[in-house]
Write a structure and sequence with these properties.
175 residues; 3-stranded parallel sheet; 5 helices
Length: 175
């Protein structure tokens, strides 16, 4: 069976193929852009020494920043860091509020707290470490790291709202 097609039909088919290709190429950047937007993870970035820092030239650094960069390598995330105004307490409060309102997806550098866990999801494993220190004046030579556990009637000032840390201190004193 011989198939014959006129030149007009060939030109029409060719024109349709070109039009379809142009149409497909016209939508490629939109599709790629949509995929890129889909992978954006907005992260609250309150400035905390050692965790989330930024220098005068706008370069990010710190444990949380480096941790996010490692995660992004394997997840395809495009991490967008969201900063907040004010001192550290105002920044942390604003960041937690932004997480709660869905304005950002996550926040690092938050120590587990039972009250906060009623509102926020915490990961199963911590990516950092927190510790408490007891400090005395430099002139106070009666208390040092070797005799601290043997002294009686030491008065220690604590922050009343730091219930977790105060509980840990109580356990340490009992031991």
């Amino acid at each position: 069976m011989n198939l014959t097609i006129s030149r007009k039909k060939i030109h029409a088919i060719f024109a349709c193929v070109i039009a379809l290709l142009l149409l497909a190429f016209a939508f490629l950047p939109v599709t790629a852009h949509a995929q890129e937007e889909k992978n954006v993870v907005r992260v609250a970035y309150p400035i905390q020494y050692g965790l989330t820092e930024i220098d005068g030239e706008g370069n990010y650094s710190g444990y949380t920043y480096e941790y996010l960069q490692e995660i992004a390598q394997y997840t395809g995330w495009n991490v967008e860091l969201v900063q907040f105004e004010g001192d550290i307490n105002a920044q942390l409060s604003s960041a937690l509020e932004a997480v709660q309102n869905g304005e950002v997806d996550l926040m690092g550098g938050t120590v587990y707290n039972e009250e906060l866990a009623k509102t926020y999801d915490y990961p199963s494993y911590s990516y950092g470490t927190a510790y408490t220190t007891l400090n005395v004046l430099e002139e106070n030579t009666k208390i040092n790291e070797t005799n601290l556990k043997t002294l009686d009637d030491i008065r220690i000032a604590v922050y009343e709202k730091a219930t977790v840390r105060n509980g840990e201190l109580g356990q340490c004193c009992e031991a």
